[in-house]
Structures are given as C-alpha cells and as structure tokens.
Amino acid sequence: MKKINIAIDGPAGAGKSTVARLLASRLGYVYIDTGAMYRALAWKALQRKVDPKNGPALLSLLKEIEIRLLPTERGNQVFVNDTDVTTDIRSNEVTAIVSKISQHQEVRTSMVERQQQLARHKGTVLDGRDIGTAVLPEAELKIFLLATVEERAKRRHEENCQKGIPSDYASILEDIKQRDELDTTRTFSPLVKAKDAIEMDTTNMSIAEVVERMYELAMERI
Ligand code: C5P
C-alpha cells in the first residue's frame, strides 16, 4: 500500500497528540510529536540558563544537542542526548517558556529541517503548529483540529488529574490563552490553517470519533 504523510495542526490542548498517536498506531505509521522537540530545547535552555529571548544562543544550544523521539504506546519517549526528558519537558517551567523559544526564526528553521528529515520516508503522522504550512506543505492529508479554549483547558485538567499531576483549571486556562496568543501572532510560521487543511471542531466529539474520521480520510488517500 502507498504510504502518505499526515499533518495535524491546531492550538494547545486540542487533543492533537492523543489522536495523532492513535491514528499512527492504527495505520502502522510513525508518530512524531514536534511540540516535544521545542519543549526539549526549552528544557535544555532552562538547564543552561539561556535567555529565551536570545535566538542565536538558542540556535547554538540546539546545534549542540541531539533530540531523539522514540515511539512508545503512550507517545514519544524524548531524549536530549542520553537524558530521558519525557516527563520533565511537561513541567510548568518548560510550558511557561516554550512559546517564547519557538518564536525565533533561526530556531524554527533548524527544527523544521530536523522534522522534514524524520518524515522523509513517508508513513508518518506529525503534530504541531506549522506542519501543514511549513514542515510538510506537500502532506497528502492535512487536518486542523479545533476546540473551544474552555474545552481544551478542561481536557488538559482532567488528563492531569487522571495522571495524578497537581492541576488547577483556572491556571491551565490562562496558560492556554497565553500560548494561543503567542503561537498565533508570532512573525515566523504562526499557527494558521493551511489552505488545503480539513478543519475538525472536536469540542463535541470523542477521541474515538476523531480518530475514526481521520482514519477514513487517510484511507481515501492511500
Ligand atoms: O504541542 P505542544 O503544546 O507540546 O507544543 C509546545 C509549544 O511548542 C507550542 O505552544 C508552540 O509554541 C511550539 N510549537 C511550535 N511549532 C510546532 C510544535 C510546537 O511552535 N510545530
């Protein structure tokens, strides 16, 4: 069967990573969480005390490190060189600066190259903010996931509670609003729906329904 690339974009908390992982597993494809790559750089920047506003310093830091994404049943296991940072990149400290780090053009150019390399053999599902527009403009299937900001915050809060992570709905809502603002207004590759992307509002859809719809769309193209 022909292999395709699938781009899934959308704002924070729209459920991209969950549905992208499940879709990839159903198709036997590789799932690549591009947000985890920006988070890995943010984690390293915090460790080295690099200013999130300093694009050139962030780029040299990025060039020094190898970011590896290993597929697992629960998503990507993330390594910076030999350190497993899978849990640490989800910390509040990383979340607070990641959208500042992802603003810089030099950082984005280098990340996009890495992501294109990972997708070069096709048979991949990438999720992020600029996959359909910048990373894989030729992707055979592009999905733009939406949900209201309140629904996205509620989902993130419930997910944290299930995982036993201390969680506060009001601060999650605030964080998501701030990241939406930074991600949609940045100068380089802002979060925007690609012209040929299919929009899906998941506010009233279950995860299974979203995955099923995406699977149907993928099968039409394979
Ligand atoms: O997907 P996730 O919420 O983990 O992404 C964290 C941050 O990384 C986003 O808020 C955004 O600033 C940045 N990002 C990006 N481009 C991508 C993926 C993530 O700018 N393709």
What is the assembly state of the chains in this entry? single chain
Based on helices, strands and strand pairing, what is the structural class? alpha/beta
Average of pLDDT: 96
The portion of residues assigned to helices is: 40-55%
Binding site for ATP: 10-18
Organism: Aliibacillus thermotolerans
Pfam families: Cytidylate_kin
Domain Cytidylate kinase: 6-218
Topology:
Elements (H helix, E strand, L loop, with lengths): L4 E5 L6 H12 L2 E4 H15 L6 H10 L2 E6 L2 E6 L2 E2 L7 H10 L3 H14 L5 E5 L2 H5 L5 E6 L2 H15 L5 H17 L12 E4 L5 H15 L1
Parallel strand pairs: 1-6, 1-7, 2-6, 7-8
Antiparallel strand pairs: 3-4, 4-5
Helix pairs in contact: 1-9, 2-4, 3-5, 4-8, 7-8
Cytidine-5'-monophosphate binds next to helix 2, helix 4 and helix 8.
GO molecular function, one term: kinase activity
Protein name: Cytidylate kinase
EC number: 2.7.4.25
Structure commentary:
With 222 residues, this protein is α/β, with parallel strands linked by helices. Helix content is 51%, strand content 17%. It has helices at 16-27, 34-48, 55-64, 92-101, 105-118, 131-135, 149-163, 169-185, 207-221; strands at 5-9, 30-33, 67-72, 75-80, 83-84, 124-128, 141-146, 198-201. The longest helix has 17 residues, at 169-185. It starts with a strand and ends with a helix. Cytidine-5'-monophosphate binds next to helix 2, helix 4 and helix 8. It comes from Aliibacillus thermotolerans.
